Amino acid sequence: KSQVDLTVNIQTFSLRKLFASLGLDFPLETSDPETFKKLSMDLHLKADQASVGITDGKFTFDETLTGFNLALKSSGHPNLKVYMEIDQINADRYLPPPSEEEKPEPVKSGTEKDQETDYSALRAFDSVIDVKIGEMTVSKVKFSNFLMNLTSVKGLFNLKNLSLNTYDGTVLSSGRFDFRKNTPVMSLNFEGKGIQAGPLLKD
Fold first, then answer.
1. Helical ranges in 43-157 per DSSP H
2. Average pLDDT over residues 76-94
3. Structural contact between residues 165 and 143, judged by C-beta atoms closer than 8 angstroms
4. How large is the average pLDDT for residues 131-158?
5. pTM for the full model?
6. 88 near 63, Cβ under 8 Å?
7. Distance, CA of 155 to CA of 119 (rounded, Å)
8. Residue 136 burial (CB < 10 Å; 0-12/13-18/19+)?
9. Rounded mean pLDDT, 34-54
10. Distance between CA atoms of 53 and 37, rounded to whole angstroms?
11. How far apart are the first and last CA of the chain?
12. Cα 177 to the chain's mean position, in Å?
């Protein structure tokens, strides 16, 4: 029975400089040109023919530190467990800069038959995913204490908890997403408390 047991350490490097040294254009256009200049990773990997496990994972990109663990068991019905904790991130820095020209909406042909979406990949594994984010900014909107717990069993996904704080208030959400058949069935509950509209609109 073959096994892998190793520690991975990738020292801090600039992804932009790496592409430049290879004579390649950087493939991502971001609002902030200072992004992707400090990346590093540490993790411990164990694997055999039936499972893969990553522990003590730490991934740093720019000013964001991400800790993570992962466990994948492939024997029988595959099972994936992921835990991720991010200290803070400003997603706006990584988005493309706003375009002055509006792109026209693509015209859909009336003669084309709608392709039925294949959801079989979502039924092929079970999962438990936990995510924590201390602070984040998305479209200039600031959030904190983001928590998410998502589980799935053979295509039935349960969003057991999604919560976050924003502008002196709290957002709570839960939901159920059923992909066990070709026609998905979804339900989502959403509740917001005490959110201050003034600062939100200002940002």
1. 120-123
2. 94
3. yes
4. 95
5. 0.82
6. yes
7. 8
8. buried
9. 95
10. 28
11. 57
12. 18
